[in-house]
Amino acid sequence: MNTPHSMYCDMTKLNPNWRLRAAVLLLALGLASAWAQTVPTVTLQAGPGTGGFALDGVVQAVHQTTVSAQANGRIVTLRVKAGDQVKAGQLLATIDDRDAVVATQRSQAQMLQATAEHRNMQAQYERTRELQQKGFVSKAALDTASSQLQAAQAATEQAKASVQQSGIGVSHTRVVAPYAGWVLQTHLQEGDLALPGSPVVTIYAPQPLRAVVQMPGARAAEARSATQTTLEVLGATGGGVALKPTGRQIVPSADPVSQTSEWRWDIAPQDAAHLIPGQQVRVQFDGASSGAVASLMVPSQAIVRRGELTAVYVAQGKGFVLRAIRTGAQKTAQAQEVIAGLRTGDVVALDPVKAASQR
User: Fold this and answer.
1) How many CB atoms lie within 10 A of CB 344?
2) Is 37 helix (H, G, I), strand (E, B) or coil?
């Protein structure tokens, strides 16, 4: 019968390195336990707010135009694409102008005919007037000749107007840029049928730009009383750049469904030079008169930014889970306000790298 001592001796004979392997395993478990214990955390507590709030909006071009077709016909050439820079008056597209050219030629022929008829009526009037002065024709004959001359003159003027109108029709087959800017989108391609009013190209001017927010009616009074308004434009990494608006406009109407009104803030030219329409912007209202509201602050070092994701690692069970959050104003260099995604009592990891290893 084998005793524990004999079994121990047999194991050492079969695997002389077992002690080393066991020591390595125990060391690894000890390091993992120590690692888990060294993840610094903080428990969130609601603190006094500053009486402010934030709303999300978007950067918008003040001058953005959808250039539409003004003539019937197929698109013959489309000379621009999305992302192209254009100058004022630059040709964007051409529409088949054969019908317009034929109409112009017809109008020109009618004008030549009307001009010839007018010259004939002018000569006939002169002869009738001379004969009337000599007593060979009556005053009624002269009046008739005068009426015919006036009718011929009116027909000539009408023919000239028709030529001008047909010329405008030809010009409508050329779609040009109304101002210098950038092509945002093309709506038709070569060969597509264009009708009057059909969108062809959308362009925008890179300056000036503005920030636009849909303001809830319940918060309008609070926003008006804010002592400071800051625009935070979110970048590709999730971080924000704080800007000071140069002016504000409030559209005096409300959406009947959402009960919001549009508020606009002008962006300074030097700031707008680094922005493009469509970027997300957060408008922060500080010092509102509604009173300070309790807010959650999270240390900046705990925030993880991955592309459009802003998140923190929150303790759950024996590990951590990544939770998306919505941040507010950057109150200090070390802390940022959290307006959604966390609540009082949540335990947040201060070292996201270490917390990620325990997910």
Assistant:
1) 11
2) helix
Q: How much is the average pLDDT of 96-116?
A: 90
Give the distance from CA 60 to its chain's centroid.
5
* Predicted local confidence at residue 305, as pLDDT: 86
CATH number for the domain whose boundaries are 38-62+218-359: 2.40.420.20
* Dist. CA 183–CA 16, nearest whole Å: 76
**Number of Cβ within a 10 Å radius of residue 261:** 17
pTM of the shown model = 0.60
Distance, CA of 325 to CA of 145 (rounded, Å): 90
Q: Which of 275, 247, 241, 276 is nearest to 263 (CA)?
A: 247
The beta-strand segments (E) located in 154-256 are 174-176, 181-186, 193-194, 199-204, 209-216, 228-234, 240-243, 247-250
Torsion sign over Cα 290, 291, 296, 299: positive
Locate the domains of the chain by residue range. 38-62+218-359, 63-96+173-204, 97-170
63-96+173-204 is a CATH 2.40.50.100 domain: yes
In sequence order, what are the residues at sequence separation of 6 or more whose Cβ sits closer than 8 angstroms to the Cβ of residue 99? 72, 73
C-beta neighbour count of 257 within 10 angstroms: 6
The answer to whether domain 97-170 has CATH 1.10.287 is yes
Supply the mean pLDDT for the chain.
Answer: 83
Asked if residue 48 has pLDDT above 70, the reply is: no
From CA 49, how far away is CA 293, in angstroms rounded? 5
**DSSP category for residue 190:** T
